[in-house]
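Hi Y.,

Following your request, here is the sequence exactly as I used it, all 429 residues.
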Amino acid sequence: MSKSLNSILIPALGGTALFLGAAYGFASRDYGQERISLLEDRVVQVEGHVETAKSAAKAETARASELEAKSVGLEAEVAELTAAVAVARSSGGSLTQGAPQFSGKLGLGREAHIEEIAAWDVDIVPGGIGLPEGRGDAYTGEEVFAEHCAACHGDFAEGVGNWPVLAGGFDTLADKDPVKTVGSYWPYLSTVWDYVNRSMPFGAAQTLDPDDVYAIVAYILYSNDLVDDDFELSHENFAEFEMYNKDGFIIDDRPETEYPIWRTEACMENCKDSVEITMRASVLDVTPEEEGNDQAGATKASDSNDKAAAPDPQPETQVAALDPEMVAKGEKVFKKCSACHQVGDRAKNKTGPVLNGIMGQGFGAVDGFKYSKVFKAAAEEGRVWDAAGMAEFLAKPKSYMKGTKMGFAGLKKEADVQAVIAYLQSFGG
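Below is the corresponding structure, written out as tokens. Let me know if you'd prefer a different format.
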């Protein structure tokens, strides 16, 4: 019995053991494959991180190179600015204080380059500081002025319409209505050069080269009879020239002398008993005159007295037959005068009086025209326009009639003078 059982159980146990061993082997193999798969996935992830790190490293390296290059450029720019500051200080220039800056960064704009600053920094200050090299004479300036400036300021800087007069007015600064021109009023020549250079010609500012600006300024000085027609202005002699009215200005010391007085409490004591009117608006030409106005009546009475005091026009002088060719030439030359004067049947007073019948006529005899003091004085003396006097006047008006408001510098050629006289004679006189 037992023997039989042993023979049956032993093979059965052996089979079971074999089965369990096989099962364990299969289980162990499945576990290893899963582990390998996990390791492979991990390797892929690590490789991805490595590539990402490499890309980031490359980007940081490029950024570092860019910043390094930029720092080199900024160092060079700082060196240029430092050199420019040194030059400005050595030449007597001044440095403008920069505007306040925010403590934080707004991320807008950038610092101006030295070339950009130089392009804007074109102002000229008294003494000629900041002037570029160049030169120009009054004779050349007449041509440049005629091309670029005469349309508004007249061929002789006398002004056209309401455009500014640039010449004359020397005897008017003490009047109630002074004529403030470049010649009579401006204290610094640098102001003239700077304004022409930066703002003129009208509508085409900063299109003139330095030589043209020097020539224009020289011609303006000539138009004001401050230099001769062969005068040459340059960066070398600029600082030596002194304007007519250089001593006509005072330093504004009101912040020190007057402001402290105004800022104290008003005393309200010892006030005047009455107030006297010393000037009226109608005299200043800011209020239209009306019929019946006392001031207007006084003005009309004064005009009547002036007319009564003025001598009667002299009879026309008989002259020889005029040369038609000379008259035709005079008509062409008279174009220089036509900006202010008119002749002919429809002639009207403009900046200057009508010139019909001027030859043989008394000084200051045209009705309705407001003459300067020197012409009024000549009228009271009974002076009359003759050929010799007209020739001298046309050649150099300011020498013949010192104090005249006329900005015309004069005709340079004797032939032109005689031609204009013939042309004027053709309109009577």
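The longest strand covers residues 135-137.

Thanks again,
Q.
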